[in-house]
Automatic annotation (TrEMBL):
Gene Ontology MF terms in the entry: gluconate transmembrane transporter activity
UniProt name for this protein: High-affinity gluconate transporter
Keyword Membrane applies: yes
GO cellular component: plasma membrane
InterPro entries linked to this entry: Glcn_transporter
Keywords: Cell membrane, Membrane, Transmembrane, Transmembrane helix, Transport
Pfam families membership: GntP_permease (PF02447)
Localization of this protein: Cell membrane
Family designation: Belongs to the GntP permease family.
UniProt topology in membrane: Multi-pass membrane protein
Ranges that cross the membrane: 30-46, 58-76, 96-129, 136-154, 174-197, 218-242, 254-278, 298-316, 336-369, 376-393, 413-434
Domain of life: Bacteria
Length: 438
């Protein structure tokens, strides 16, 4: 009954958005309430569950998206994005710019949460697309594939890091094996797959499109790169420090505080306000209007992502994720395949890769810890790969990609969803191969 209810809810969500043309945020609210009632949540608690999901999701992501949009808007309007695009194209050539962005996405994706990397790199993608009149999905999807792979496979991201602890795995070996899997997954699901997507029409959000600025009025290459990549530098440096210094000193606590993503984004916005705003002759009133417009442009994205959080909360509060897990545990499969399958089905049902990974780990941890034949490092990667499978309308990442790139539901499914699913299956095949070798 639980599986049928979840299936019905997902179909209802798809029909409301694609056929009835209901606003996605409203559709999420309707489906979340319906699912909650059908799954047995008491009438008086359904609304609280929805509100809890909305609040938790917005609390985790609103600062990142809003500050990231402000930085992105300023990077675009100041000419910094134009300068970065020119430097990249001069270094790699227009023919290989896609590979340059993939490399940038992989490096940046290692220390950054997916949503942070997304909102930071989208302006760079769009600046290249607008300036050189390239296909947005063809250029952008490979970079986002790199971000997604690092999110699902590699520590220090939340799910892989937590799985390493749960299974008593080795962080270094997991990272090494993850890097081995990441390379083919990114190449095949990124640049290779993107060749089939050149005909997808896309008119990306204009918030990151600025008028062409004369070369002599652009900020310097150093200022442009420094400002755009400052969040990455701050997070990488603080993470490196915290991983090498485990003391309880005041300095350690201060570095940990500075390394928190919202603080990093705030520091970066303050720095951008100076380097790309005040230093370029702009006043605070003008900069304030830029920031206001940036937040307006991403407001609906915030609501849609929050709506997906409400749906996830209803399914979690009803115990649907545990019901799914209990059903799957009765299957007699190779342990690594079972871990991948549990994570994949929870991901399809709930939308969140992190929740899928952590839930699957809780279900299968006893098996891993009591069976010495199971490689715990590979189980981390198997579950990580499964947690990326078939991202669709109940996943916030799906809506980030759709809304930023301004795509139809159909084109988002055939590009984003297929890319995520390819990464998932390539990861599973790689894990099974490694299991025969290590």
């Amino acid at each position: 009954m639980t599986l049928l209810t979840i299936f019905f809810s997902i179909i209802l969500l798809i029909l409301l958005v694609s056929w009835a043309k209901v606003n996605p945020f409203v559709a999420f609210l309707l489906v979340s309430i319906t699912a909650g009632l059908l799954l047995g949540i008491p009438l008086e608690k359904v609304t609280k569950s929805v509100q809890h999901g909305l609040g938790d999701t917005l609390g985790a992501i609103s600062i990142i998206i809003c500050l990231g949009a402000m930085i992105g808007k300023l990077v675009a309007t100041s000419g910094a994005a134009q300068k970065i695009a020119e430097v990249l194209v001069n270094a790699f050539g227009v023919k290989y710019i896609q590979w340059a962005l993939v490399l940038a996405g992989f490096i940046i994706g290692i220390p950054l949460f997916y949503e942070t990397g997304f909102v930071l790199m989208v302006p760079l993608i769009f600046s290249v697309v607008y300036k050189y009149k390239l296909h947005a999905v063809y250029i952008g999807l490979p970079m986002l594939a790199a971000l997604s792979v690092t999110h699902g496979f590699l520590p220090p991201h939340p799910s892989p890091s937590a799985l390493v602890l749960t299974f008593h795995a080795d962080m270094g070996k997991t990272l090494k094996y993850g890097l081995i899997l990441a390379i083919p997954a990114i190449i095949l699901a990124g640049p290779v797959f993107a060749r089939t997507l050149k005909n997808i029409p896309s008119n990306p959000l204009k918030t990151f499109m600025a008028d062409e600025i004369p070369a002599n009025q652009l900020p310097s290459a150093f200022t442009s790169f420094f400002t755009a990549l400052l969040p990455v530098v701050l997070i990488m440096s603080t993470t490196l420090y915290l991983n090498t210094d485990h003391s309880e000193t005041t300095l350690h606590k201060l570095i940990a505080f500075i390394g928190e993503t919202p603080i990093v984004m705030l520091i970066s916005l303050i720095m951008a306000t100076f380097t790309l705003g005040l230093k370029q002759g702009k006043d605070m009133k003008f900069l304030g209007s830029i920031y206001t417009h940036a937040v307006k442009d991403v407001s609906m994205i915030l609501l849609i992502v929050a709506g997906s959080g409400a749906f996830k909360a209803v399914l979690t509060d009803s115990g649907a994720n545990k019901d799914i897990a209990n059903i799957l545990q009765s299957f007699h499969l190779q342990p690594l395949v079972l871990g991948w399958l549990i994570a994949a089905i929870i991901r399809i049902s709930l939308g969140s890769a992190t929740v899928a990974g952590l839930t699957a780990a809780g279900i299968i941890s006893t098996l891993v810890l009591h069976d010495p034949t199971i490689n715990p490092n590979l189980m981390v990667l198997a579950i990580g790969a499964g947690s990326l499978a078939f991202s669709h309308l109940n996943d916030g990442g799906f809506w980030l990609f759709k809304e930023y790139f301004n795509l139809s539901i159909k084109d988002t499914l055939r590009s984003w969803t297929v890319m995520e699913t390819m990464v998932s299956f390539i990861g599973l095949v790689g894990v099974l191969i490694l299991n025969q070798v290590v």
